[in-house]
Amino acid sequence: MKSLFLSLGTLLLIAFYCDAAVLYSTAPVTCCNKFSTFKIPESRVSEIKKTHGSCLRQGFIVKTVTGRRICFKQSDDWVQKPFYRKRISEGSGRKREQW
């Protein structure tokens, strides 16, 4: 009887720790260490994302039509406008604008 309780207790303990490991694992996070200072024409931008909240330096990651990813500061106006315009169009239920 003791071995049954010991086995069940061990099994529950293992299940708890395995579940906790999955719960607290994090997805790959992309942060920026350096920021570019030049402006990219909006016609060359295919995607804009904000850096993860856990990053030390907040900014935008811009993906160009050629697949290149470039970091820009969050304070850069030229990258803020298309980012927020895209978010508004996605939230309104309208078809996404191509810019």
From TrEMBL:
It holds the Pfam family IL8. GO terms for biological process: immune response. Gene3D superfamilies: 2.40.50.40. Residues 1-20 form the signal peptide. One of its GO terms (molecular function) is chemokine activity. It is found in: Secreted. Residues 28-88 form the Chemokine interleukin-8-like domain. Keywords: Cytokine, Secreted, Signal. Coiled coil: none annotated. One of its GO terms (cellular component) is extracellular space. This is C-C motif chemokine 4-like. It comes from Cyprinodon variegatus. The lineage of its organism: Eukaryota, Metazoa, Chordata, Craniata, Vertebrata.
